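INFO  loader      accepted 1 record
INFO  loader      residues=171
INFO  predictor   begin
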Amino acid sequence: ISVNVSRASLDDLTLPDRFAALVREMHATPETVILEITESAATSDPMATMDILTRLRLKGFGLGLDDFGTGFSSLVALHRLPFTHIKVDRSFVEELPGQREASMIIKTVADLAKNMGLHTVAEGVETKEQFETLRQLGIDLIQGYYISRPMPAEKAMDWLGGWVAKSLTHN
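INFO  predictor   done
INFO  writer      dumping C-alpha cells
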C-alpha cells in the first residue's frame, strides 16, 4: 500500500514510531508500506527530512519520491535521501503511447532508478496501451484506473483475488 505523507508530518520526530505502531495494529509489516513524499516536501528542510526518512527506512518502510519530474527535479534528493521508489507523474503517462518525448523521459527515469537500485512507479495508468508501453520502458509498478477504480477497503481482498486469478490466466 502507498500512503502520501504531508510536508508538515516530516517535522514530527514521533512519525516513524506512530506509523510503525499503526502498521502493527493492522497486523501488517512496514515492508508492505510505501510512504510517498513529494519532491518539494523532501527538499524544503533537508536535515529534518533526512532524520525522519532515515528513521522510517530503519523501521522497514519503503519511501517514494512522488511527482518526480514535475518541478525542479533534484538529483540531490535522490542522492542524499533514502528513497526506495521514484514515482513518475501522470502528466507523462497520459501522453503515452504516442508522445515520443514523454516516452524518452519515462525511459530515462526508469534507467536512472534501476542504476541507483530504486524501483519505479507510474501513476495515472488508464489504458492497456499505457500499461504495455510502461512495461516496455522498464517501469516496475503502476497505479491507475486500468488496474482499478478506488474502492472501499472491505472490497479490496475480493478484488485482489480476482485480479490475481485473471493475471495467472493471461500469462
